[in-house]
Amino acid sequence: MKAPVCIIGGGPSGLLLSQLLDIEGIDNIVLEKQSREYVLGRIRAGVLEHGFAQLMREARCGERMDREGEIHEGFFIAHDGVMDRVDLHKYSGGSSVVVYGQTELTRDLYEARDRMNGKVIHNAEDVAPHDLKSDRPYVTYRQGGQIFRVDCDYVIGADGFHGVSRKSIPREVLQEFERVYPFGWLGVLSRTKPVSPELIYSRHERGFALCSLRSQTLSRYYIQAPLEDKVEDWSDDAFWTELRNRLPTDVANKLISGPSIEKSIAPLRSFVAEPMRHGRLFLAGDAAHIVPPTGARGLNSAASDIYYLYHAMVDHYKKGNDTGLDAYSQRALARVWKAQRFSWWMTTLLHRFPTNLPYEDRLQQTELQYLFSSEKALGSLAENYVGLPF
Ligand code: FAS
Ligand code: PHB
Questions:
Q1: Which residues fall within 8 angstroms of residue 38, CB to CB, at 6 or more apart?
Q2: pLDDT band, residue 127 (cuts 50/70/90)
Q3: How remote is the CA of residue 228 from the centroid of ligand 1, in Å?
Q4: pLDDT on residue 210
C-alpha cells in the first residue's frame, strides 16, 4: 500500500488530521489498533476551546457539535464557602468554549471519514514505523494473521501516551519532562440533570471536585481520589455522598444523583516529549504531551498540533514549501508548554496536596482571593481557558 501520509492512531488527533488532509486532496491512511466501538466507548474530554471548535467546522464535522454542544461563557470556582464566577466572555474579549463530549466528537469524525471513504484501518496490530530518518519511511502492521506495509512520505504519531510512535524515537534523541501528581480523579457519568448550567470547580479541604455535563440530561462529575484507590472501592452512594461533601450546601442540596453509567479513576500527570519530530515522524496529541484535566487542556492541546501539521502538509504538497514542517516541533511545543503551565497552575490551585504545609494551603486561598480581586488575573485565566491563539 502507498499513501503520502500514514497516521498511527484513530483517536481525535489522528482522525481530525486525516479528515483535514483528505479535504485538501492529500491522501492518507489511519492505522488504529482498537475497534471503532472500543475507541467510541471511551469517556474523556468535555470542553472544546474556540480553536478546536473552529477546526471541527473547517473539517466539515461541526454540524452536530453546533447543534447539540453548549456554548459556555463562564464557569464557577467554589472555595472558602463562596462561589465565584469566571466570566470568560468578558475577560477573554468575547470568546467562549463549547461543552461537547470527546466521545461524540470522535463519532462525528468517524462519520465524516466514512462520508469521504477515508481509509481507517481498525484492529491493526503490531503497528511499527520504519526508516524514519530516510526519505522513504514505511509502516508495517498485522491484521488477520497477515503482515501489511504502508509506504509513505510522512508518519504521524497520533497514538496517544501509550502508543508506539514516541518510543520509536531513539532514547539519545528524546527528552521527556514529567510530573506525576499524588492523586487521581474519580469520574462518574450519570443520566441526570446537571446540578449547574455552568461548570463548578470546587477547592475543598476534603479534596477537589468538579461538576460538569455533556447535555441537559447527562452529567459528568469528578472528585479527587487517592492514587491507591480502585474504582471498585467506590460505590455510587459513596461517590455521591463525597461529592456533596465537597460542594457548597446550596449546590449539594439540589444535586440529583443516579446510577453511574460510567465510573473510572484516571491518574494525573504532566508530560512533554521533545522534540515532536524525528526525521519523517511527527508526534501529535497525547503521543507527545499529557496534562492533568483540571484546565481542560488535554484534547485542546492536540488541536494546535493538528492545525500546524495540517497547514505544514498543505504547504509541502501544494507549494513545495517545507517551512511549516521544519518549524513544527518548535512551534507546537511553544503552545504545548503554555497549556502545561496553565494546567499545572489550575491543578496546584484547586487540589488538596497531602504533603502541603499549612503555609501552602494559605497560599492557595490567597491565590484565589487575588484572582477574584484582579481583572488582570481573571483576564489571564480566561484567555488560557478559552484557548490561546494557534
Ligand atoms: P488518544 O489516546 O485519544 O488516541 C490515540 C489512539 O491511538 C487510540 O485510539 C489508541 O487506541 C491508538 N493507539 C495506541 N497505540 C497504538 C498503536 N501502537 N497502533 C495503532 N494505534 C494505537 N482531556 C480533557 O481536555 N478533559 C478531560 O476531562 C480529559 N479526561 C481524560 C480522561 C482519561 C482517562 C484520559 C486517558 C484522557 C483524558 N483527557 C482529557 C485527555 C484526552 O482527551 C486526550 O487529550 C485525547 O484523547 C487526545 O487525543 P489523541 O491525541 O487522539 O490520543
Ligand atoms: C469534563 O467535562 O470531562 C471536564 C470538563 C472540564 C475539565 C475536565 C473535564 O477541566
A1: none
A2: very high
A3: 23
A4: 98
Report the percent of the chain where pLDDT is more than 70.
Answer: 100
Mapping DSSP to helix (H, G, I), strand (E, B) and coil, where does residue 29 land? strand
Distances (CA, A) of 3 to 18, 37, 352, 367: 12, 25, 49, 51
The residue among 10, 37, 23, 3 whose CA lies nearest residue 284 is 10
Say which CATH superfamily domain 182-268+353-386 falls into.
D-Amino Acid Oxidase, subunit A, domain 2 (3.30.9.10)
Would the CB of 286 count as within 6 Å of ligand 1?
Answer: yes
Residue type, 265: I
Q: Which three cell numbers stand for residue 123?
A: 484492529
In this prediction, residue 81 has a pLDDT band, given cuts at 50, 70 and 90, of confident
Q: Is 47 in the pocket of ligand 2 (CB under 6 A)?
A: yes
Closest CA to 102 of 59, 49, 57, 40: 40
pLDDT at 110: 98
For 221-264, write each residue's pLDDT tens digit: 999 999 999 999 999 999 999 999 999 999 999 999 999 999 99
Judge if 5-72+96-178+269-349 and 182-268+353-386 fold alike in CATH terms. no
Q: Which fold has domain 5-72+96-178+269-349?
A: FAD/NAD(P)-binding domain (3.50.50)
Q: Is 129 in the pocket of ligand 2 (CB under 6 A)?
A: no
Which residue type sits at 106? T
The domain segmentation of the chain, as residue ranges, is 5-72+96-178+269-349, 182-268+353-386
Q: Ligand 1 mean position to 268 CA, how many Å?
A: 14
According to the 3-state scheme, what is the secondary structure of 79-107?
Answer: ECCEEEEEEHHHHCCCCCEEECCHHHHHH
